[in-house]
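This section describes the prediction task in plain terms. A model, or a person checking by hand, is given the sequence of a single protein chain and must write out its three-dimensional structure as a string of tokens. No templates, partner chains or ligands are provided. The sample shown here is typical of the held-out split.
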Amino acid sequence: MNENPLDLLPELLILAGAVIGLLAGLFLPRGRQRVVGWICGIALVAALAATSVAAFRPDMMAFEAYSLDLLTHVARAAVIVATLLAVLLAAGWARGNSREAEIHVLIMLAALGTVILAGAGDLLVLVAAYLLASIPAYALAGFAKDAAGTEAALKYYLMGAFLGVLMLAGVTLLYGLAGTTAYQEIGSIRGGAAGLAVVLLLAGLLFKAGGVPAHFWVPDVTEGASRAVAAFVTTVPKIGALVALLRLAVEVFAGLDTGWRPLIAIIATATMTLGNLAAFYQDNVRRLLAYSTISQAGYLLVPIAVAGRSELAEPALLFYVAAYAITNLGAFAVVLAVGKDLLADYAGLARTSPGLVFALVVCLLGLVGTPPTAVFVGKVLVFTTAWDGGYAWLAVVAAINTVASVFYYLRWIRPAFQPGGAIIVARREARIAYVAAAVSLLLGAGSGVVLASASYVA
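The expected answer:
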């Protein structure tokens, strides 16, 4: 057993950023609370550096409950980068707030829970990580203390608490059947009780991922919470939840004779289809992005359905979730830069800020999966994985949904090129949108070249 705390250095640095930021906020005057944002940013950069070093070490288990492998390393990096962007996006909204320090600290704690969720190798650690990723997010949703935010926080909390209890019941049931909570020690279990345990475990993780039928909170929280919080809660927790699901599929579900693959395939189909259909009728860009993130969860569930049957399942999920995180945050950065929520309010944006419109087009077409964006490569990998894993019909469903999604993203792009009044754009958020769009293009182009080269060599 490995009990070296330094193996968890990235997690410890994130925790240190949150604790030091909280302590600094207690003593700093109200006008200098922005220092806490800098503290959290520095901690995240240090955690990313530590993750880069840890990625070159052999795979291992820390404290017999936490996996240190490729899944954990990529999830760490994706969560850290996404959280850093979220902290930058929240800086403008938080500035001047009497509790500015707490905003950054809550984001850090939720990010820490998300990382642990991805690396959990024990069911009890999974539950603890679920709570740590959830409770700070509930507080963030209602942080503005307005009617919409309070309603969003209440719905978010009630659904999270209910589905969290179901997940805990699944953990209890699985422990009773297997006699252990360690993933690697859970053997082959048959019968209806094992199937029920799988369903209950899925309840909590689908809530964090925003998948059907645990998706109802997503549009309400995205619209009711502040824009910066909406960007965070629709992006970062999804990374940990989906990586945790993939790990469970490979290490736990594979030993259970329960027919879990068809169940996840059906959930993936329902999630991507419902998200796309609901997005068609949205005139509010935040609700449009909310249903978009639901549909993206459906695509991301596809590799999980074939985990263990296709060697591409792991790289497909990891690449797609990282590409999605950058692209989705870029789209939200445009919303924050413009400061308006209705599609009609974007009329004239191309004349006022052509660079921001270009970033918007890249991010929205990126969410569709248009080359040469990063999500395009992710979707190609997902389709290939489904086909390779014996679920060709699921690849066809995902492809049809991808084509259908073009229309509601175009509904947002079209008004931006129509005549309209001058729009004042926030420069900080606009720069973040530029960076996200550039990363999506570069990552997509570079990965496309690598895939093409690999296919040619093969």
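For orientation: The chain has a mean pLDDT of 92.
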